[in-house]
Design brief:
The protein has 382 residues and is an alpha/beta fold. It has helices spanning 16-30, 73-81, 96-107, 124-134, 148-153, 173-178, 203-216, 234-243, 258-267, 282-289, 318-330, 332-344, 351-372, and strands spanning 2-7, 34-39, 50-51, 56-60, 86-91, 112-116, 142-145, 164-166, 189-194, 223-228, 250-254, 270-273, 294-297, 312-315. The protein has two domains: 2-170 and 351-372, Rossmann fold (3-Layer(aba) Sandwich), CATH 3.40.50; 173-344, Rossmann fold. The chain is 39% helix and 17% strand. It is elongated.
């Protein structure tokens, strides 16, 4: 099958959508499919488009307003005329490139699937504008999203009769588990967070939670916090750590590779996900796979693979999250019990499951296209 993934966001940028699309494309290529990624993200390293060693072809067509108000015409031409059997578009809140390419392929009768990777609550006016632009009421797109809470946010924005399939994000559970090891007992209780340093991830709120935890934990209990990630707030975070006097025990590590992050999970005691609008939480799933207790907000998608008091702690607000960190810092027995449970019970959001789920969604989209088009033409070919 010839599969086209369409995404505004892709490598060399690093984020949830970028990594998920790359991983999914690689696994589909390994399964024998011909996979292409069409993206608006330029490669500032100057590399030419083409097929990578992993078997995935990448085509980069940044939007150029002089040619088209939103999407370069060659992007739509590539998607519509190259003979793809399925087009899989990946959306955040404002993903104009992927949205308009998906509209064009759907109008051309090509089976089209859209995955929503973000929470739309609080951003409905923006999404409504995209909805009108893409004419979703008319579309025959098959919809998916990454969690039940994200699906609930889509009500009233996607067509009323649309079925939204929940296909979770995935990680290589076995690979992350392989890095787990018993933590030495002679080091500080270590909190770890992996996030993009952007407003919606709430890194400054995380610093406040750490301050609250430090104030509640006895002074003779040593604490350490490691924050992995970069982004536009990186310089401000560095200043905040200094201004708040946290430099002795809070360390900003910047961007790290997956092997480096796995090694950090082995050195940590608790993973913290402070975002309130987390549609899924790939980093939290990685940490959960590695055995770490996960502390996250109750309102987001992390709660679909972390149960309060079982795989971690779920919190209603910032004050509760600060208290949860303090609780796990002093209750060694609870922390070690959650770790033991997580190591003995791996999560089910693994790649074989998710690739299989998308195979079924693709089959549904293809059946729908067959019904709509006389002669059963798929991807411009019989």
């Amino acid at each position: 099958m010839r599969i086209l993934h369409v995404t505004d966001l892709y490598r060399p940028d690093v984020g949830g959508i970028e990594l998920f699309v790359e991983d999914l494309a690689q696994r589909q290529a390994s399964a024998g499919h011909e996979v292409t990624v069409l993206t608006a993200t330029p490669d500032h390293r100057g590399r030419a488009d083409g097929t990578a060693p992993d078997g995935v072809r990448v085509v980069r067509i940044p939007s150029r307003p002089p040619l088209h108000p939103f999407v370069a015409p060659e992007a739509i031409e590539n998607a519509v005329t190259a003979g793809y059997d399925i087009v899989h578009a990946h959306l955040s809140v404002l993903s104009v490139f992927a949205t308009l390419v998906a509209r064009a392929t759907d109008e051309a009768g090509i089976p089209t699937v859209t995955t929503v990777h973000s929470m739309w609550a609080g951003r409905r006016p923006v999404v409504h504008t995209v909805r009108v632009l893409a004419d979703w009421n008319r579309a025959n797109i098959v919809w998916t999203t990454v969690s039940r809470v994200a699906a609930a946010d889509m009500v009233g924005l996607v067509p009323r009769d649309a079925t939204v399939h929940v296909v979770p994000n995935a990680v290589d559970v076995g690979w992350w588990r392989a890095g787990a090891q018993a933590a030495p007992g002679d080091r500080p209780v270590t909190f770890l967070s992996v996030m993009r340093l952007a407003p919606r991830k709430r890194p400054f709120a995380f610093l406040s939670m750490l301050e609250r935890a430090r104030a509640e934990v006895p002074a003779d209990v040593a604490l350490r916090a490691l924050i992995v990630g970069d982004g536009k707030l990186e310089r401000r975070m560095e200043r905040e750590v200094r201004t708040r006097g946290l430099g002795e025990w809070v360390t900003l590590l910047g961007r790290r590779t997956r092997p480096e992050i796995r090694a950090l999970y082995a050195e940590a005691d608790v993973f913290v996900a402070p975002a309130q609008q987390e549609s899924f939480g790939i980093a939290a799933l990685e940490a959960r796979s590695a055995g770490l207790p996960v502390v996250a907000m109750r309102a987001g998608g992390v709660g679909e693979f972390v149960r309060d008091g079982v795989e971690g702690l779920l919190c209603r607000d910032d004050e509760a999250m600060g208290a949860a960190l303090a609780r796990l810092a002093v209750r060694d027995h609870e922390r070690t019990a959650i770790t033991a449970y997580n190591r003995a019970h791996p999560p089910t959001c693994d790649w074989p499951r998710v690739v299989g789920d998308f195979d079924r969604v693709y089959a549904e989209a293809r059946r729908g296209a067959e019904v709509r088009r006389p002669g059963g033409v798929i991807g411009g070919r019989r």
